[in-house]
Amino acid sequence: MASDAEASAHALELRRVVKSFGPVVALRSGSLTLDRGSIHALIGENGAGKSTLVKIIAGLYRRDSGEFLLDGESVDFTSTAQSKAAGIAVIYQEPTLFPDLSVVENIFMGRQPTNRIGRIDRRAMRDEAVQIFSRLGVGLDPDRVTDGLSIADQQIIEIAKAISLDARVLIMDEPTAALSGVEVERLFAVARSLRDEGRALLFISHRFDEVFALCDTVTVMRDGSYVETTPIVETSVDELVRQMVGRDVTELFPKLPAEIGETVLEVDGLTRAGVFRDISFTVRAGEIVGLAGLVGAGRSEVARAIFGVDPYESGTVRLLGAALPKGNPRAATARGLALVPEDRRRQGLVLDEGVTQNITLAIRGKLATWGLLWGGAENEAAQIWASRLEVKTAALDAETGTLSGGNQQKVVLGKWLATEPKVLIVDEPTRGIDVGTKAEVHRLLSQLAQEGMAILMISSELPEVLGMADRVLVMREGRLTGEFPRAEASPEAVMYAATADAEAAR
Ligand SMILES: Nc1ncnc2c1ncn2[C@@H]1O[C@H](COP(=O)(O)OP(=O)(O)OP(=O)(O)O)[C@@H](O)[C@H]1O
Ligand SMILES: [Mg+2]
């Protein structure tokens, strides 16, 4: 039985929590109160300290000072096992799966149910996994290894893992960043049912529409400190943005007029069996072509094939009229093509190297004179891009893995922009990036187009595509199903081409 004190206390409470990493103060004064039967949003700019707060709750980090109460009792976790045992489940910003283990094994990692004679009960594990998947409405094969799964699927497994813990407190650090609309809806349905069962939920997201659709209360953080907590019905996007950035962000899609020149990228009849078929399009100098579609439509796969990291069976890719060899990203880079991948942590960054080293990774050859890499040139190049992208880090030689999620994204963008490509393919360029910086990334893309770069922008955010693109291509199930000049690209038309469902288009 819960005592009276326990029943009246908040489910979880943090007061003025401080956390430093050497000279870096990640949290100056983090405060947060979670209540049972409620979904609480935590928002703030990249590097504001949200994930650090979460990791303290999870027992991954220990606080330097401040209070941490669970059901009114002071706690101090020294391991994630302790927080789990106390009923806290966490979905981390970066999936933490073991690639060689199966989906089921990952879900029950470290706490496999056992049967009467103490053996691991594989059937029980599998049954429970299947049950959670059906609750989430996903058709994942529970027996396959997780290696090679899309980030959306990895995220689903993380969610299943958290739900299977049957926790009293569920924390979700940007769980929807890689999910499509349908998957987000299902996750929200599950979150609401958990709330209605009386659990306390914390939801971190850079998407305001989700915060307003799902949450009851919102806490804003800025520069490692608590700013304000407000019931969601008493606030607005503008108000929250002001609290987050301390200024108004008026223009989210600052599209500049650009002169559209010669055809730079020409893709003709590109086909990879079972993945995409007969993909043909062009991108011209100064042009931003948006590639819209649902998650899983094959857009990233097309981009990867063009760049040469994935194979294709037939079709051609031409750069300024000359055919690009298949399966050769090095040649593609040398010829002026760059791809900012979707799964940046795995494909784009060396996490234990410095920010400078990562930004200059793809231009080392160019910076070296007579085979000697001059540190000054390297620092200069890194400096330029780190500041254009507002990368927030204590120092440019800090390990990239210590940067916040959004700031790591910016480093990958910087790495490819530093190659000064003729054609830039960006896959979800602003995923996980906060509102203020998002506007900066858009401004930057627009400027680069104005300077004559040809840009292919894959994005699942319709407003971003419609706001930035001169022309919109749409893919559905591996095929191109629509092409619209800017003036004709309405949300309805694009959604219809993406889903062939008149309902969804409305
Ligand atoms: N292990 C670490 N070592 C050094 N600095 C760190 C470490 N972890 C976090 N930081 C720093 O703490 C600050 C807060 O980071 P945190 O990851 O909490 O931000 P966030 O609010 O989650 O941002 P995002 O929206 O980008 O995910 C950042 O400046 C980051 O560089
Ligand atoms: Mg974070």
What's the quick description here?
By secondary structure, the protein is α/β, with parallel strands linked by helices. Helices cover 35% and strands 24% of the residues. The chain contains 20 helices and 20 strands.
List the helices and strands and how they pair.
Layout: H1 4-8, E1 12-21, E2 24-34, E3 38-43, H2 50-58, E4 65-70, E5 73-74, H3 80-85, E6 88-91, H4 103-107, H5 122-136, H6 151-164, E7 169-173, H7 181-196, E8 200-204, H8 208-214, E9 217-222, E10 225-231, H9 237-245, E11 263-272, E12 276-284, E13 288-293, H10 299-307, E14 314-319, E15 322-323, H11 329-334, E16 337-340, H12 344-347, H13 355-359, H14 364-367, H15 375-388, H16 405-417, E17 423-427, H17 435-450, E18 454-458, H18 462-468, E19 471-476, E20 479-485, H19 491-499, H20 502-505
Parallel strand pairs: 3-8, 3-9, 6-7, 7-8, 13-18, 13-19, 16-17, 17-18
Antiparallel strand pairs: 1-2, 1-4, 4-5, 9-10, 11-12, 11-14, 14-15, 19-20
Helix pairs in contact: 5-6
Bound molecules: adenosine-5'-triphosphate and magnesium ion.
Characterise the protein shown here.
The chain has 506 residues and is α/β, with parallel strands linked by helices. It has three domains: 4-245, Rossmann fold; 254-336 and 421-506, P-loop containing nucleotide triphosphate hydrolases (Rossmann fold), CATH 3.40.50.300; 346-420, no CATH class. The protein is 35% helix and 24% strand. It has 20 helices and 20 strands. The protein has helices at 4-8, 50-58, 80-85, 103-107, 122-136, 151-164, 181-196, 208-214, 237-245, 299-307, 329-334, 344-347, 355-359, 364-367, 375-388, 405-417, 435-450, 462-468, 491-499, 502-505, and strands at 12-21, 24-34, 38-43, 65-70, 73-74, 88-91, 169-173, 200-204, 217-222, 225-231, 263-272, 276-284, 288-293, 314-319, 322-323, 337-340, 423-427, 454-458, 471-476, 479-485. The strands form four sheets. Strands 6-7-8-3-9-10 form a six-stranded mixed beta sheet, sandwiched between helices. A six-stranded mixed beta sheet has the order 16-17-18-13-19-20, sandwiched between helices. Strands 2-1-4-5 form a four-stranded antiparallel beta sheet, covered by helices on one side. Strand 4 and strand 5 form a beta hairpin. Helix 5 packs across helix 6 (151-164). The longest helix is centred in the middle third of the chain and has 16 residues, at 181-196. The mean pLDDT is 88. Adenosine-5'-triphosphate is lined by residues 21, 24, 26, 44, 46-52, 93, 392-393, 402-407.
